[in-house]
Design goal:
The chain is α/β, with parallel strands linked by helices. It is built from 8 helices and 19 strands. A hairpin with a 2-residue loop joins strand 12 and strand 13. The chain is elongated.
Length: 337
């Protein structure tokens, strides 16, 4: 690898839209920032990113390639690697990688996203992001007016069915192992959504296209696409060494890392942004949150540097104090001014 920093002002863990957006904000603030990306974006199976103004339909790979180039344009470093953990080191952190390397950072921005845990139904994983979907805003337009099945697999499944009904009149709700309540059944009926009872065992595929849903009793219901509610779990194991862990989300849809509205966590010096803390954020929202976190991190560093400059300014004059004052005023050691 050509790029590397042994010391960075900020290490961004995760190089998706959120991580790159946060890094861009920091790099444009002349911070020494390094992005470490494991190369496992959540939206990799999707053909395009949707709902992102002026970039709608852009492939995830193209979006990230352009984002990396923009970060590097402003002096940021982007490397491929898997972060295995982070530990406190004085007033900063040591970030460890799977290949044995490590980097010291004054601040951390964690944008590692989440993992979608799919229901245990044969064939779902293979079709994920193609004709097995979860979000009406990410993929709904692409299946408009088609025969859509919604698999009851989480607390938001009925809500999903009602949302997809906005996009097509042909919606079937498969109760699977979570039959709707009486109130929910009335809502589905009122919207003309058929309910099929019985456990689903597989999705049917022909010529690389989803064609239906198979139930345990042998019935096959024709469908063009299937909607599932995944259990969304933040990728947060790397934070365990700092005492920071993912917790159950109040909605019951998965696990997330709590933070304040700016992304600041309970661990001083650590920010999070994107799906690792906001399980339902689309690309635009994740990127915006990380940009906010990047700005907050820069402001936090500025205050630290200002305090150091004031302390040096108040010291009696000497060669040593002059050197400390110059270093404090400089702030960004990378640029040396």
């Amino acid at each position: 690898m050509d790029e590397w920093m042994d010391d960075a002002e900020v290490v961004v863990v995760g190089g998706g839209a959120a991580g790159l957006s946060g890094a861009l904000m920091l790099a444009r603030s002349r911070r020494a920032v390094m992005v470490i990306d494991a190369g496992a974006p959540r939206n990799a199976p999707a053909e395009g990113v949707h709902g992102l103004l002026a970039r709608d339909g852009t492939s995830p790979g193209e979006l990230l390639a352009q984002g990396r180039a923009e970060v590097r344009r402003y002096g940021g470093v982007v490397v491929d690697g898997e972060v295995t953990g982070a530990t406190r080191d004085g007033d900063g952190f040591i970030v460890a990688l799977a290949d044995g390397r490590s980097v010291r950072a004054r601040r951390l921005l964690v944008t590692t996203g989440l993992v979608d845990e799919l229901p245990d139904v044969a064939g779902l994983r293979e079709r994920w992001g193609r004709d097995v979907l979860h979000c009406p805003y990410c993929h709904g337009w692409e299946v408009r007016d088609q025969a859509v099945g919604v698999l009851a697999s989480g607390p938001m499944s009925v809500h999903q069915a009602l949302l997809f009904r906005q996009l097509t009149a042909d919606v079937t709700f498969f109760s699977h192992t979570l039959p709707p309540t009486a109130e929910q059944a009335e809502q589905l009926a009122a919207r003309g959504i058929r309910v099929v009872h019985g456990e689903v065992t597989a999705v049917e595929v022909a010529d690389d296209r989803l064609t239906g849903v198979r139930l345990r009793d042998g019935r096959v219901v024709r469908r063009d696409a299937v909607v599932v509610a995944t259990r969304m779990v933040a990728r947060a194991d790397l934070l365990a060494g700092l005492g920071l862990r993912a917790v159950e989300h109040p909605s019951g849809v998965g696990e997330y890392v709590p933070a304040d509205p700016t992304g600041r966590t309970d661990v001083p010096g650590v920010w999070v942004a994107g799906n690792v803390t906001d399980l339902t954020a689309q690309v635009g929202a994740a990127a915006a949150a990380a940009a906010m976190a990047g700005a907050q991190i820069n402001a936090d560093l500025v205050m630290d540097e200002t305090q150091a400059a004031v302390a040096a300014y108040r010291e009696p004059f000497s060669a040593e104090s002059e050197a400390r004052l110059c270093a404090a005023v400089a702030g960004d050691r990378r640029h040396g001014f």
